[in-house]
Amino acid sequence: MKNILTRFRPRQADPEALGQLIAQLQQKFEQVAEEMQQRNERLLGGLQEKLDAVVRYAEQQESTLSRAVKRSIKRSTKSHKLRFMPGNNGNSVGADMMELPRVCWQHLVPVKEPLVLISQAPRSGGTLLNGLFDGHLECHAHPHELYIGYPAKTRWPSLDLSDGPERWFDMLFESPTVESFQRGYRKYGRGRYKDPEALFLLLPSVQRELFLKCVAGQHITSPRQVFDAYMTSYFNAWLDNHNRKGDKKIVVAFMPRLATDEGNVEQFFDVYPDGKLISILRSPHSWYVSARKHPTPTHPRADIASGMHWWQESAQAMRRNKRQYGERVCLLSFEDLVGKTEAVMRYLAEYVGIKFDEILLAPTFNKSPIKANSSYPVKTYGVIHEPVTRHLEMLTKAEIEAIENLTGDLYESVSREVIRV
Fold first, then answer.
1. Most confident range, picked from 41-50, 169-178, 195-204
2. Among residues 211, 208, 203, which one has the least CA distance to residue 182?
3. Cross-strand partners of 202
């Protein structure tokens, strides 16, 4: 382009030379436009595929969506391919996406119910219990582990009300939401790696806008208002949430290890004085067989001594929390949860203030059946019983005795605090 212009001088501007210049400029312009079009099409290809998948899924699930969202999807279904055709710049897709927060806000369901928090050492049945609550009409059930911890996953976030909405959201925002939106919902037990992923249509940008709008509409005087705004933004930005509406009584979420720290529990009950804490005590023998499959740099768990230290820490915290907070804390055994599921869930339904329903007897994600989040291969859906007795085959006699020596008295002591069903 520069070479074309430098060859042209005003004194040479006779009609023939000017015509040649115009033709050259037009040819160059068309060449550049074609290159930009090809580049844009490559960039938009990935978005086109994802949008197609979302539209197809939305059409299949349209009975669960609000009328306004259906209309928006219908418009997008008719027009989104046209917007990516050559000669269009694709800006209309952004305009459509910008409509989502407005549509969600128009049909907003406030989420201000007390939080029922499930927390204890990992590999103790927290994912199972959370999944059992998932489909109940009186529950907002967080589908993943609750990742609001700040500055670390296992720390209850301490909010400074002088920081402002942007900072609050950045602290509470759950980074796994991004990956789940892009790749689908999946639990990470070793027995589930080959399972198909389920769509999880929670748009982080929509959640952020809903949160900012929620806090902008009120005078914030307590952290509870911020947490309520966050929960409201989460469950309303989750577009294909099959259990968004209804006469909700509680929010249920699983946050492993948080309850082992006394300060975390104190802060939780400061924010949710009407909340409940449920902790699951698992036999140290069966727990170790599962936990040693999930070592971390800070908690290797490969050897019995290090593994039992984590189990002991969790069990001691259960006893302390129960004695300090009384009826606001409920302890139950993993073996009862798996072996006497109906009796346990009937007890818990009354404890948290919801009606018993048979949907509490099988774990689900977004009301669809899921397999157990097990350390070992799982072939069937629902509650599985093998984890209760697997240690009898997996541990040597010496290992069983070593675990018994390290945990026997504590296990017996805490077991006396669990519910009887």
1. 169-178
2. 203
3. 238
pLDDT of residue 40: 57
For the chain, how many residues are written? 421
Question: Which pLDDT score is estimated for 145?
Answer: 95
* Rounded mean pLDDT, 170-184: 92
| 133 neighbors 269 (Cβ within 8 angstroms) | no
Strands 364-365 vs 368-369: parallel, antiparallel or unpaired: antiparallel
Query: Nearest CA to 144 among 360, 366, 362?
Result: 366
Higher pLDDT, 299 or 84: 299
Give the pTM.
0.76
């079009």: which residue's tokens?
A: 37
The phi-psi region of residue 366 (left if phi > 0; otherwise alpha if psi is between -120 and 50; otherwise beta) is left
CATH number of 115-167+241-415: 3.40.50.300
Number of other CB atoms surrounding residue 79 within 10 Å: 12
Give per-residue pLDDT as tens, 303-360.
898 889 999 999 999 999 999 999 999 999 999 999 999 999 999 999 999 999 999 9
Q: How far apart are CA 73 and CA 28, in angstroms?
A: 40
* DSSP for residue 371: B
Q: Is the peptide bond prior to 101 cis by the omega test (within 30 degrees of 0)? A: no
129: which 2 tokens?
């219990």
Cβ 321 vs Cβ 277: under 8 Å: yes
Q: What is the mean pLDDT of residues 211-225?
A: 96
User: CB neighbours of 38 closer than 8 A, spacing ≥ 6?
Assistant: none
Q: What are the b/e assignments for 147-181, b being 16+ CB within 10 Å?
A: bbbeeebebbbebeeeeebeebbebbbbeebeebb
What tokens does 164 get?
Answer: 């402002």
Sheet strands side by side (includes 250-254): 139-145, 250-254, 115-118, 276-281, 329-333
- Sequence-distant (6+) residues with CB within 8 A of 398 are none
Please list the alpha-helical segments (H only) found in 61-90.
67-83
Please tell me the predicted confidence (pLDDT) of residue 41: 56
Higher pLDDT, 158 or 198: 158
Two structure tokens written together for 251: 């929010």
Alpha helices in 217-333 (DSSP H): 223-237, 262-271, 284-291, 304-325
Closest among 276, 268, 270, 277 to 318, alpha carbons compared: 277
